[in-house]
Amino acid sequence: MAKPLVKRVFIPPLIRGLFVLAWLLLATPIRAQLPTTRLASIFPPGLSPGTTNEIVVTGEFLDDSTGMLFSDHRLTATPKPGAVNTYIVTVPGDLKPGTVDLRIAGRFGASNPRALAIGDGPELIAPGSNTSLSNALDIPLNKVINGKAAAAADHWFHFSAKAGQPLIARVEAASLDSRLEPVLAFYSSDQRELGHSRRGLLELVPPTDGHYVLQLHDGTYKGGDEYTYRLSLSTGPHLEFAIPPALQIGATNHGFLFGRNLPGSQRSAVRGIEGGALEQLEVEIPGTPDAAPEEFLPRFGGYTWKSTSWRFTSINGLSDPLALGLTRGRVTGVATSAVVSVTLPCEQGGLFPHRKEHSGVRFDAKKGENWRVELLSDRLGFRTAAGMMLQRLKKSETGNETYTDVEEIRDAEKRFEDRDFNTVSRDISASLKIPEDGTYRLLVRDYYHSAEEGPQYPYLLRVVPDAPDFHLAVVLAIPPKSQDNDRRYHVLNPVLRPGETVALRVYVTRQNLDSDIEVLATNLPPGISSTPVRIASGQNKGTLLLTAAENATNVVGPMQILGRAQADKADLIRTARAASVLWPVGDYDEEPVTSRWVRQPVLSIAGTELAPITIAAESTSPLEVQAGTRVKVPLRIKKRLDFTGKFKLKPTGETALEKSKELEIDPGSTNAVAEIDLGETALGEGLHTLWLQGAATVKYRSFLDSLAVAEVDLNSATQAAKDAKPDDKKSAEERLKAAQERKKAADERAKARDIPLMIYTEPFVLKVIPAPKAPAKS
Known about the structure:
This protein is mostly beta strands. Helix content is 8%, strand content 46%. Strands 1-17-16-19-14-12 form a six-stranded mixed beta sheet, with no helix packed on it. The protein has a six-stranded mixed beta sheet with strand order 46-48-44-42-52-53, with no helix packed on it. Strands 56, 58, 59, 61, 62 and 63 form a six-stranded mixed beta sheet that branches.
């Protein structure tokens, strides 16, 4: 029975206000690292092809902007004269619908990215005044409304619709780096609720011709610049998923679409997340070429799996994007829960079964065969928890077939659970060795949805040769805490100051690969160098150092990190994906750190100020040392800011150095000697790239140029006030007051602050040679 609007329970305004106040206190930025340009929001979050638009940005340290950067270089932007943090952006007319990354380049380097949507039609902007039902905004069907949620408020939209015409309200938020958690509700003109949703998607089939209302708010009633959205009320197609949920590169793919408003479809037995039956449509999807742009899967756990973004075009418009995996093997699928007979290798799509149903593949295999088994669903963006059982067929003398369990296949892939790089997945990836000749089946299930009825989700089951392979991901190394109980997390950007060395954390996922992996940075911007590093066999993490030359100037450019390994006498070369933290976090025990992939890794040099300290080995040539002896590494130190005390550096670069002794550095030192005992560290013979690292606290000041300008302005205003004639006295005093305020703000901005600093020396190379053999006894 429909619920009347007037009886709906809302959070009282006072309570909403307390929520918002607590959020504002937690969200207040606290500087605890050297400043870098940080982009917090862009508005509007969506643009149309063939248009010129204004985009307003917010963030930190956006001073002295040198431009706006896009992952698709066909977009261009120029600052709007006389408007702060406002840009004129031109979108080419031939740009296809999709998403690009946008950055700001400024005084402190290039910012973190923010996602910008490119639509397929006009993009409108909500005025933000529609926070009451009486002031609901009239919106047309099949247009996109760009807006931002207000704190402690609902946003109301009014529209007309015809009886029986299916409408779908969609809100894009998380995919556009918005904090908004959208809550939607439909109401009739007589104020009766017709449906609500907390996932940013809601369907309405109007019972009569007439006027209706759509309500939108954030799930916790927060709002502001960082709570942007793109809202559409569409009669076009909506896609829930496809089977198979992957495409073969370069081939025409046969599959089935499940969703709403699909012309020519039939009603299926598959239910969606809201419980209603989905429509099903059989389609042919044109082959995706090798050069097609890759899109990111919704979860970090999918970084070992390539994907693309695909849209369905029909007579009623263009669908929302659907993430589909990419593979070079032939992909097949069935639109039901069924066990399908296949020939290995196979890549088979299907639906997870209900209780008392079976789904999976049946195949013949020989004893000793090695296969890689992957069951993907969670990594494709569906809330599932995969299970898989290997069974062997047995036939009785009368021909009856029965299956016996051989083993439960459990996930064996290396997952990372670092705060800013969490790849934990509920999917399965494992090696499978066939125990004996026979006929087998792999049965799959979803432990989250195992009832006899209810929603079902797709999966992709891959059984392919267990060939050696690996995948790489990189993030910027975590800076030191300002104090022991500091639980803040900051948005980190790969920005270097001249003379600075920074570290990238490199993550490796191995698949049947035991060899060393060489990691190197290529195509670096001018002024930045890097020394390749080796991630030893059996290791899953490494560190890659980047160094900016002391004479480097402002520069921004792409970054590419490659990994190279030997497998079966052949080179394997893989390109790393890069990740970025989305939001600063006040307490990571209370709020998760959210990260995402970036569409184009970028490096920059903030050339307006030198690094606080530069430490490097005196010799750039490899230091030759005998195994089992001690080596001394002379270091030169260039300190440019004051440090609050002594600090320690520890040799690192290989796990064998974990027990090496720390080197204490006095703040006034200009040189030091690091000593490494090879007898204790047991570094093997050969070349080793090493460095020292540690943490210190520095007295940091910046914006001294702005302070100098403010001082000159104040002196001038002070003198003008003294010399002013009676008729000019008032205006001169107003000018003086304004100059005093600017000077006060400049003093605060340029005030010395204690900043925790991670220090990396420039890398050096040790060449360990064999120790001389003892003379034979006579």
